[in-house]
């Protein structure tokens, strides 16, 4: 029986501040951790045995998934004690894998049919897909169906095909991994081991249809929008008279929706929340558990994590908000430039015309704060009344 190995040990530094208190693979997409979406797609491709390589924040992963019973699979865990790269991470499972296996990066989104297609190709094989910005990834060249070249993050990529982070390997990969040396950044890279296959003309490339990488917070919001399109309707909470619901809206148990609130799907509201009265929840919004969205507050296309409160007269659009935050009355998050150009954060083009802010955990805002487009607010910041927030704000900053 084929085993699937998933690399889930990394911190995800480019996702800061969202990964300050959780591993990257546990960031939510459409109400569930991204890793759960990935595991379910692989399961639906016919695999039931999983090995998760964990490290940073591993207790969150172990506690959530356990032995896999709730997903009707079996999960074993291997700990990468020091984050020394993808090659080192894979080498930690070598004592536990004795035949061909599937390998995936834990921070990607795939579809089961593509996983099945790669699995059906004899090992060694690697999934590839087309990208509009291949310079950000490993660019792949093919000769027929064989991989003939792989260049990492070149400003002049040789093709628009990229390495999708999904592999069907034989156990030779472990011997290749033992022979690689550390990269200039001090890590042992899986891609260096792939060159042994490529030089021998042994690595097949398999073109897949759907793929998304979670490299930066705005990537998270982009794929979240796509996933929300399939949100099912579920009303398990209490819905008062005078609430209007349009489209597919999921409401968790213990949640109360107060009179005058307008819910426009697709949107997801978790368990034990209080929404309204007269709140407006617009499409693409996901609200975690134990949240309060109050009177005349409006949320649009936004991820709100657990225990965050937006009590009254506030607006948040196209943003990602961590857990345990509180927005003072009248706080607004802008999400569109006057010139309608794409939002640039720290010199990086998000390729998004609308993007609000990334706000870490346990951030408290006073009344009537204004947060400008593309702002990143670190964990445990304290923002005083009437403050204007823009740019990157480091953890534990106090703005008076």
From TrEMBL:
<dbReference type="Pfam" id="PF25087">
    <property type="entry name" value="GMPPB_C"/>
</dbReference>
<dbReference type="InterPro" id="IPR050065">
    <property type="entry name" value="GlmU-like"/>
</dbReference>
<comment type="pathway">
    <text>Nucleotide-sugar biosynthesis; UDP-N-acetyl-alpha-D-glucosamine biosynthesis; N-acetyl-alpha-D-glucosamine 1-phosphate from alpha-D-glucosamine 6-phosphate (route II): step 2/2.</text>
</comment>
<feature type="domain" description="Mannose-1-phosphate guanyltransferase C-terminal">
    <location>
        <begin position="264"/>
        <end position="397"/>
    </location>
</feature>
<protein>
    <recommendedName>
        <fullName>Bifunctional protein GlmU</fullName>
        <ecNumber>2.3.1.157</ecNumber>
        <ecNumber>2.7.7.23</ecNumber>
    </recommendedName>
</protein>
<keyword id="KW-0548">Nucleotidyltransferase</keyword>
<dbReference type="InterPro" id="IPR023915">
    <property type="entry name" value="Bifunctiontional_GlmU_arc-type"/>
</dbReference>
<dbReference type="InterPro" id="IPR005835">
    <property type="entry name" value="NTP_transferase_dom"/>
</dbReference>
<keyword id="KW-0808">Transferase</keyword>
<dbReference type="InterPro" id="IPR056729">
    <property type="entry name" value="GMPPB_C"/>
</dbReference>
<feature type="domain" description="Nucleotidyl transferase">
    <location>
        <begin position="5"/>
        <end position="227"/>
    </location>
</feature>
<dbReference type="GO" id="GO:0019134">
    <property type="term" value="F:glucosamine-1-phosphate N-acetyltransferase activity"/>
</dbReference>
<comment type="pathway">
    <text>Nucleotide-sugar biosynthesis; UDP-N-acetyl-alpha-D-glucosamine biosynthesis; UDP-N-acetyl-alpha-D-glucosamine from N-acetyl-alpha-D-glucosamine 1-phosphate: step 1/1.</text>
</comment>
<keyword id="KW-0012">Acyltransferase</keyword>
<dbReference type="InterPro" id="IPR011004">
    <property type="entry name" value="Trimer_LpxA-like_sf"/>
</dbReference>
<keyword id="KW-0511">Multifunctional enzyme</keyword>
<dbReference type="InterPro" id="IPR029044">
    <property type="entry name" value="Nucleotide-diphossugar_trans"/>
</dbReference>
<dbReference type="Pfam" id="PF00483">
    <property type="entry name" value="NTP_transferase"/>
</dbReference>
<comment type="similarity">
    <text>In the C-terminal section; belongs to the transferase hexapeptide repeat family.</text>
</comment>
<comment type="similarity">
    <text>In the N-terminal section; belongs to the N-acetylglucosamine-1-phosphate uridyltransferase family.</text>
</comment>
<dbReference type="GO" id="GO:0006048">
    <property type="term" value="P:UDP-N-acetylglucosamine biosynthetic process"/>
</dbReference>
<dbReference type="GO" id="GO:0003977">
    <property type="term" value="F:UDP-N-acetylglucosamine diphosphorylase activity"/>
</dbReference>
């Amino acid at each position: 029986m084929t085993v699937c190995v998933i690399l889930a040990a990394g911190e995800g530094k480019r996702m800061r501040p969202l990964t300050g208190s959780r591993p990257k693979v546990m960031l939510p997409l459409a109400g569930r951790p991204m890793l759960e979406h990935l595991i379910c797609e692989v399961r639906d491709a016919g695999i039931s045995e999983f090995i998760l390589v964990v490290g940073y924040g591993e207790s969150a992963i172990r506690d959530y998934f356990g032995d896999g019973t709730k997903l009707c699979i079996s999960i074993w865990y291997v700990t990468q004690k020091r984050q020394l790269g993808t090659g080192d991470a894979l080498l930690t499972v070598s004592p536990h894998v004795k035949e061909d296996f599937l390998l995936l990066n834990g921070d990607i989104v795939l579809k089961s049919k593509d996983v099945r297609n790669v699995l059906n190709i004899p090992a060694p094989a690697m999934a590839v897909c087309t990208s509009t910005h291949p310079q950000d990834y490993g660019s792949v060249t093919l000769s027929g169906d064989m991989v003939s070249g792989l260049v990492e993050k070149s400003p002049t990529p040789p093709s628009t095909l990229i390495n999708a982070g999904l592999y069907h390997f034989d156990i030779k990969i472990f011997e290749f991994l033992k022979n690689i040396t550390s990269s200039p950044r001090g890590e042992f890279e899986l891609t260096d081991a792939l060159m042994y296959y490529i030089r021998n003309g042994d690595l097949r490339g398999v073109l897949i249809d759907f793929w998304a990488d979670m490299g930066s917070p705005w990537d998270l919001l982009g794929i979240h929008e796509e996933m929300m399109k399939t949100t099912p309707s579920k009303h398990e909470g209490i819905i008062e008279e005078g609430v209007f619901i349009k489209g597919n809206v999921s409401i968790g148990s213990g949640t109360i929706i107060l009179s005058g609130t307008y819910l426009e799907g697709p949107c997801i509201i978790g368990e034990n929340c209080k929404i309204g009265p007269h709140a407006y929840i617009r499409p693409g919004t996901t609200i975690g558990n134990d949240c309060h969205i109050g009177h005349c507050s409006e949320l649009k296309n936004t991820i709100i994590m657990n225990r965050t409160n937006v009590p009254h007269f506030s607006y948040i659009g196209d943003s990602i908000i961590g857990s345990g935050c509180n927005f003072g009355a009248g706080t607004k998050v802008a999400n569109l430039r006057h010139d309608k150009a794409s939002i640039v954060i720290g010199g990086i083009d998000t390729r998004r015309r609308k993007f609000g802010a990334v706000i870490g955990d346990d951030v408290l805002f006073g009344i009537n704060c204004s947060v400008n487009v593309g702002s990143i607010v670190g964990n445990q910041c304290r923002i005083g009344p009437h403050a204007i927030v823009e740019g990157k704000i480091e953890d534990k900053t106090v703005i008076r």
